[in-house]
Specification:
CATH topology of one domain: Methylamine Dehydrogenase, Chain H
Number of helices: 0
Distance between the termini: 37 Å
Oligomer: single chain
Structural class: mainly beta
Radius of gyration: 18 Å
Strand content: over 45%
Strand order of the largest sheet: 3-4-5-6
CATH architecture of one domain: 7 Propeller
Helix content: under 10%
CATH class of one domain: Mainly Beta
Number of strands: 25
Length: 262
């Protein structure tokens, strides 16, 4: 077990962020999923914790009982997670104080870790064998297993957006995979790492941000033909990022959080 922290900062002025709250917890996980949705904060600390952050200086814990979760995604009134050999878990958040487990769906192959959800699709990364798998979550009570895509080496992360999966593959760059209407997967483009190391990709509008010693920005108006636009530096080893309007917020390793203007 390792002592970790979650912190809240006021970034109304991104050039002068102010830390306004911190809380410690212990966890054996290497990383922690953090999601902010409708003034609610979800994060993994040996199970999902849910806070009301209407007043960010005084977060209020909402869920009375621990929610079994590893990676966390929230969409609408549902929380999605992947756990080891269990697979994909879906919780109903109608009663936020006591989320209800709706379904457990095994992965078609491997043991999952990272997870991404957008629209009707959920995609998770697995090992043994290395792969990504896609689920149709149109009915959260009965997610439907669709296709898997195998890799020779473990991919770092997956992001699903607008019927495409963006898979960061370290020194092998970032794959763009089309999710067809029937859930089948089609590799349409690899963005080379060019000597770097692709940790993660996030999408905002028609732009993709590939985290690689900062972020490479691409125009993905046509995902088959991504066009490099420019590069933004970070202060550390950025492994996750969120884009909000004209700024990108890097989870920047030991450098903390780096905010850069796009």
């Amino acid at each position: 077990m390792e002592k970790k922290y979650f912190n809240l900062a006021d970034v109304s002025n991104p050039e002068e962020p102010k830390q306004i709250y911190t809380e410690s917890f212990t966890s054996s996980y290497e990383y922690t999923s953090i999601v902010i949705d409708n003034k609610r904060l979800f994060f993994n600390a040996g199970g999902a914790r849910i806070y009301d952050i209407s007043n960010p200086k005084n977060p209020v814990k909402l869920n009375k009982n621990p929610v079994e979760a590893d990676s966390i995604q929230v969409q609408g009134n549902y929380l999605y997670s992947t756990i080891g050999e269990i697979g994909l878990l879906v919780y109903d958040l109608s009663d936020i104080t006591s989320p209800k487990l709706l379904s457990k769906t095994s992965f078609p192959m491997g043991i999952p870790r990272d997870l991404s959800v957008d629209g009707k699709w959920a995609a998770g990364i697995s090992n043994s064998p290395y792969s990504i798998s896609v689920f149709d979550i149109s009915n959260p009570q009965k997610p439907a297993v669709k296709q898997s895509y195998k890799y020779d080496r473990y991919p770092n992360s997956v992001t699903v957006k607008d019927n495409y999966a963006y898979v960061a593959r370290a020194e092998y760059g970032t794959d763009i995979i089309k999710i067809n209407d029937d859930g089948s997967l089609e590799l349409i483009k690899n963005i080379p790492a060019d000597g770097g190391y692709a940790h993660y990709a996030t999408v905002s509008g028609k732009k993709a941000f590939v985290l690689k010693d900062g972020a490479d920005i691409y125009d993905i108006s046509e995902p088959k033909n991504p066009i490099f636009l420019n590069h933004i530096n970070s202060n550390g080893e950025a492994v996750r990022a969120v884009v909000d309007n004209e700024h990108i917020y890097f989870a920047d390793g030991y450098a903390g959080v780096t905010i850069a203007k796009i």
